[in-house]
Amino acid sequence: MSRLVDGATFLQSGDHEVPAVWGDGETVAWASGEALMVVGPQGVGKSTILQQLAMARLGLGRPLLGMEIRHDRRLERLLYIAADRPKQIARCGPPASAPGSAARR
């Protein structure tokens, strides 16, 4: 039997209930078990959004862009690599006096 299917069949056969890391219901910006890529031109807030998303995953944030972010209690630490402009990215992070910030560094 052939595994080839037409596009409409492929799209209609998928699981439409996706557990969300970021979002819920029909509005899912980041699905559980899938990669997340944030792309855009310089200066539009990609680093800021990713920092807020990381903080919320650690339980230190709130909804982002109108969508809930699932706090993962299994996360004790989160690796954030600011390789391209580390000084600029550090300035848009939470202040050192923010609750939990010292424990997270």
Describe this structure in words.
The chain has helices at 7-13, 46-57, 86-91, 101-104, and strands at residues 20-24, 27-31. A two-stranded antiparallel ribbon has the order 1-2. Strand 1 and strand 2 (27-31) form a beta hairpin. The chain is α+β, with helices and mostly antiparallel strands and 105 residues long. The chain contains four helices and two strands; from the N terminus they run H-E-E-H-H-H. Mean pLDDT is 80; it is low at 101-105.
Q: How are the elements arranged and paired?
A:
Blueprint: H1 7-13, E1 20-24, E2 27-31, H2 46-57, H3 86-91, H4 101-104
Antiparallel strand pairs: 1-2
Task: Please tag this protein with its features.
single chain; 105 residues; alpha+beta; two-stranded antiparallel sheet; 4 helices; 10% strand; globular; disordered C terminus
Biggest sheet overview: 2 strands, antiparallel
Please state the average pLDDT score. 80
Strand content: 5-15%
Number of helices: 4
Q: Please identify the structural class as seen in this structure.
A: alpha+beta
**Which strand order spans the largest sheet, edge to edge or round the barrel?**
1-2
Rounded to the nearest angstrom, the radius of gyration is: 17 Å
Distance separating the two termini: 54 Å
User: Which residues form runs of ≥5 with pLDDT under 50?
Assistant: 101-105
Order of helices and strands: HEEHHH
Q: Which word captures the global form? A: globular
